[in-house]
Amino acid sequence: MSESDLDLSDAEEETPHAEMKKLDIQGKAAEASSSSKKPIIIIVIGMAGSGKTTLMHRLVAHVQESGKRGYVLNLDPAVTNLPYGANIDIRDTVKYKNVMKEYGLGPNGGILTSLNLFATKFDEVVGLVEKRAPELDYVLVDTPGQIEIFTWSASGAIITEAFASTFPTVVTYVVDTPRSTSPVTFMSNMLYACGILYKTRLPLMLAFNKTDITQHQFAVEWMEDFEKFQDAVESDKSYNANLSRSLCLVLDEFYQNLRKVGVSAISGAGMKEFFETVDACGQDYMQNYRVELEQRRKDKEQREEERKRVNLEKLERDIAESKGEPVVLASASKKDVLGEDADAADVAEEEEIYDSDVSGEVDDDDDNEDEKHYRY
Ligand SMILES: Nc1nc2c(ncn2[C@@H]2O[C@H](COP(=O)(O)OP(=O)(O)OP(=O)(O)O)[C@@H](O)[C@H]2O)c(=O)[nH]1
Ligand SMILES: [Mg+2]
C-alpha cells in the first residue's frame, strides 16, 4: 500500500515530519521521561452508544475548568463528529474509508485494520506523551465504538500495554445505565467488564453514565448486596437458574474491589467523584499493578532471550554442519516473529500490515492547543 492510498494528506506531511525531527521523538523524549512526573492515562472503553465520546468531552472540559492539564487522544477512526479537540487523532494518520477500499473490507474490518496500522506507530505516540508528561495531569483516550475491536484485538493490547508500561494507566468502563436496568443485561455488561479486567490486568473503574435519565443506585445495591442481585437475576424466569446463580457468584468476587461512580456526560454530574476515583485507581496502579507488570515484562524478556539463544545455537549448528558450503536459512515464520501467543488471525493481520507500505506520521496537534474550546 502506498502513502497516497492511505491518504495521509491531512497529516500535513511537512509539519509532522519537521515536528517529529524537532522533538527527536525516539531519542530524547524517552530519556526525559523516566524521572519526571507521570500523568494518569484514562482509557475510556464501553459498549457502542454508551456515551464514551460525550463523556470524553465532559471530562476534557472538567480537566480544563479545574486548572489541570489534559492531553487527549482519539483512537476511533470512524467517528465523524468529534465534540472535543484531540491532541492526537487517529484520523489524521489513517483514513479508514481508504483502508476499507484498499483491503476490500467492511466497516468493522476497516476500523480494526486502521487501528492495527496505527498501533505500528504507537511508540511515537508514547514518545509524544512522554515529552509532555511533566506538565500533564491526565491523558484521556477515546476508543472505537465497537468495543471488541479495541478489547479483543492485537492492536488494542499493544496500545494498552504501551501506555501501561510507561504511565499509571486506568481503564474506565462506561455503562449505559438506563439500558442496564434489566438484571440480565446488567449481568452481561458486568461479565464483559470482568473480561476486560482479566485481559488488561489494569485498575478498572465503572462509570455509570446517563444518570440524568436513570440514577445508578439500583446497580450499586446489586453490586453491594449479593442476595438482592441474585434475586433480581433469578426473577427473570427465562434464565437458567443454576447458571445465573453461578454467574452471580463469579460477579460477586469481581465486585469486591471494583470502584464505581455515577456520571452524566450531558449534565456534568459526578465529575468530581470521577476524578477522585481515577486518582485512587492511579494509586492502585503504583502500589499493586506496577510490580506485577514489571515482573511480566521481565518474564517476557527472558522468554525472548531464550528464543534468541535457541535460534543462535541452531544457526551455529547449521553452519558447522554445512562445512563451508553456503547455508540456506529457512525464513522465519510469522509465529517466530510474533511469538508463541500469536493466533492465526494475528498472523494474518500482521502479514497485511507489514506487507504494506505504511509511512504515515502521528500528528500531535499541539500547536493549536490553546485554540481548543472544551465547552458545551
Ligand atoms: N441523556 C444522556 N445521553 C447521553 C449521555 N452521554 C451520551 N449520551 C447520548 O448517547 C448517545 C451516544 O453517545 P456517544 O458519546 O456517541 O457514545 P459512544 O459510546 O462514543 O458511541 P460510539 O463511539 O458510536 O460507540 C448520544 O446520543 C449522546 O447524546 C448522558 O450522560 N445522558
Ligand atoms: Mg464514540
UniProtKB/TrEMBL annotation:
<dbReference type="GO" id="GO:0003924">
    <property type="term" value="F:GTPase activity"/>
</dbReference>
<dbReference type="InterPro" id="IPR004130">
    <property type="entry name" value="Gpn"/>
</dbReference>
<comment type="similarity">
    <text>Belongs to the GPN-loop GTPase family.</text>
</comment>
<protein>
    <recommendedName>
        <fullName>GPN-loop GTPase</fullName>
        <ecNumber>3.6.5.-</ecNumber>
    </recommendedName>
</protein>
<dbReference type="Pfam" id="PF03029">
    <property type="entry name" value="ATP_bind_1"/>
</dbReference>
<keyword id="KW-0547">Nucleotide-binding</keyword>
<feature type="region of interest" description="Disordered">
    <location>
        <begin position="330"/>
        <end position="376"/>
    </location>
</feature>
<dbReference type="GO" id="GO:0005634">
    <property type="term" value="C:nucleus"/>
</dbReference>
<keyword id="KW-0378">Hydrolase</keyword>
<dbReference type="GO" id="GO:0051301">
    <property type="term" value="P:cell division"/>
</dbReference>
<keyword id="KW-0342">GTP-binding</keyword>
<dbReference type="InterPro" id="IPR027417">
    <property type="entry name" value="P-loop_NTPase"/>
</dbReference>
<keyword id="KW-0963">Cytoplasm</keyword>
<comment type="function">
    <text>Small GTPase required for proper nuclear import of RNA polymerase II (RNAPII). May act at an RNAP assembly step prior to nuclear import.</text>
</comment>
<feature type="compositionally biased region" description="Acidic residues">
    <location>
        <begin position="1"/>
        <end position="13"/>
    </location>
</feature>
<dbReference type="GO" id="GO:0005525">
    <property type="term" value="F:GTP binding"/>
</dbReference>
<dbReference type="GO" id="GO:0005874">
    <property type="term" value="C:microtubule"/>
</dbReference>
<dbReference type="GO" id="GO:0005737">
    <property type="term" value="C:cytoplasm"/>
</dbReference>
<feature type="region of interest" description="Disordered">
    <location>
        <begin position="1"/>
        <end position="20"/>
    </location>
</feature>
<dbReference type="InterPro" id="IPR030230">
    <property type="entry name" value="Gpn1/Npa3/XAB1"/>
</dbReference>
<comment type="subunit">
    <text>Binds to RNA polymerase II.</text>
</comment>
<keyword id="KW-0175">Coiled coil</keyword>
<feature type="compositionally biased region" description="Acidic residues">
    <location>
        <begin position="339"/>
        <end position="369"/>
    </location>
</feature>
<feature type="coiled-coil region">
    <location>
        <begin position="286"/>
        <end position="325"/>
    </location>
</feature>
